Amino acid sequence: MDKAKQPGISFDDIILKELIFSRKEGYSDRPILNMQLISNISFSPNKERLIYEMSCDINDEKGFFNIKCTMVGFFSVIEGKENMGLKEYSELSAPAAIFPYIREVIASTTTRAGIPPVVIPPTNLNLLMQNENDKETD
Length: 138
Prior knowledge:
Structural class: alpha+beta
CATH superfamily: SecB-like
Low-confidence stretches: none
Number of strands: 4
Order of helices and strands: EEEEHH
Distance between the termini: 33 Å
Helix content: 25-40%
CATH architecture: Roll
Strand order of the largest sheet: 1-4-3-2
CATH class: Alpha Beta
Radius of gyration: 17 Å
Number of helices: 2
Mean pLDDT: 86
């Protein structure tokens, strides 16, 4: 891979696969939030397309609200500009491409629900995903 070049991967599409939201009366303005990220990586049979699914589940410790958002991104190699494999791209860049969409859906949904918006701060996804993977292997 030539680090001076772009990866040669196209972000073809993104869809909202699932959005689940529940809220109870008595929501506090300063909840203690728990967040979990889960990803599922798959490839087309010919290995020319990456299908990257990311779910974010957030709830507060007192059980007043829960939101789960799942987005699916579709990526493919740009013919003639290949510089990074889809597997490598799926590990670092695909989560960074999809996560802003999840952040936006969560912020706008919680705002529309009449509670202070849950704005997920910019996040080191590499570290966060590594921590989630470590939990799964324990």
